[in-house]
Amino acid sequence: MDSLYTLAEQWPLITEMSRKKEVFWENPVYGKTIEEPQGFELTLEDIKEADARLRRFAPFIQKAFDETVKDEGIIESPLLPADRFQAHLEREFHKMIRGSCFIKADNALTVSGSVKARGGIYEVLKYAEELAVNEGLIGLDGDYSRFSSLPFKKFFSDYTIICGSTGNLGLSIGIISVALGFKVTIHMSSDAKQWKKDLLREHGAEVVEHEDDYSKAVDVGRQVAISDRNSYFVDDENSKPLFTGYAVAALRLQNQLDEAGITVDEKHPLYVYLPCGVGSAPGGISFGLKQVYGQHVHPVFAEPVAAPSMLLGVMTGRHDALSVKDIGLDNNTVADGLAVGRPSQFIGKLLENQIHSFYTIADEQLYQLLATAYDTEGIKAEPSAAASFIGPIKMDVEEEEATHVLWCTGGSMVPEEVWHSDYQKGKI
Ligand SMILES: *Cc1c(COP(=O)(O)O)cnc(C)c1O
Predict the structure, then answer these.
(1) With 90 as the cut, is the pLDDT of residue 27 above it?
(2) If you measure from the C-alpha of residue 335 to the centroid of ligand 1, how many angstroms do you get, rounded to a whole number?
(3) Roughly what angle, to the nearest 10 degrees, separates helices 363-377 and 83-93?
(4) What sections of the protein cross the membrane (predicted)?
(5) 354-381, pLDDT tens digit by residue?
(6) Can you tell me the distance from the alpha carbon of 35 to that of 80, in angstroms, rounded to the nearest whole number?
(7) How far is the CA of 336 from the centre of ligand 1 (A)?
(8) Residue among 22, 6, 11, 42 at smallest CA distance from 313
(9) Which of 121, 188, 213, 338 to mutate to test the pocket of ligand 1 (most atoms within 8 A of CB)?
């Protein structure tokens, strides 16, 4: 393994990163043709299939979660204009933002209050469907509200869902698994917030706490699952269904932009700012958006200064072979959802030429943006989600009529006192 010194010699930005400085990196191979990674064929059709599966399950979701009745069992969040927030950013940072800012409010996603409701819930539903169809309990055109009936629950109670998580993935997987009747075990990293563990236990999930970081929690979960045929492991570092579930967001965003009368084309590019942990959520969303908008959409990833794992992996081309610990970082950040030291095994390779830029952000800045978003737009974000809010300041966008989407990835499940304390830190 290379030392920090040799790495920094080849990639000078690593020196800054290792000192926890905020950095910005524009991807030199963005939009260029690269060798396609082997063994990963996913297309727009797969994303549409995932969308159709979620629609099949809508009658079940609606029955199991009251708050989804208004959307007829479709778990989706609003796209909100963010003019006041934009004006505040411009004043605060003395910079004009070309175009208009919107907030994609996944903090308000029903069922589990974060972006993880997209991928995590999708993967468990997909598995449940496979089991039920194979068992002859239901056909693809059957009445899916029966997934909440006793015979289904009894059938699923022989199976265990397992995952490793920094918190929000565990919440999503735990809540949906329990609703279906599965047993569920969530391996939580040391960064995971106490309230997330408590909430999961309240729902009836088993929570195993680890002294180590997220990668270790995932490892242990994976090992336990391998040894048991009736266990299913949601592998945040390497899951295609999870990725596909996240990608469905692209179809939904396309509808919302259409409804708002927003064009996306050469003259009206779309910039999307995405908080990044292991890379599944931002990767899946970017992949989906590229299928829909091609070269007119530009994904930008945001990471905490203490855990720029995807940036490190993509910039060096070493991907999951490097951890942020290799450049002396401790992975210690208030952005618990992004506290990931080693990136996904496949996303960086797959999207190497499809991520426009990366930037990192300091914890103090996250608190301030979290407070500002509440003061200007009434948005309750968790610190991880606030990483996207500064995107339009970090990027130099030239097109006058650009659309900026700040992806607010989580927040509504944060207990009032925890949220308030974060808010206060941003006001000082
Ligand atoms: C998990 C998470 C992310 C990032 O998703 P990854 O798939 O880990 O990259 C962003 N924001 C929040 C709030 C999260 O919980």
Answers:
(1) yes
(2) 9
(3) 140
(4) none
(5) 999 999 999 999 999 999 999 999 999 9
(6) 38
(7) 9
(8) 11
(9) 338
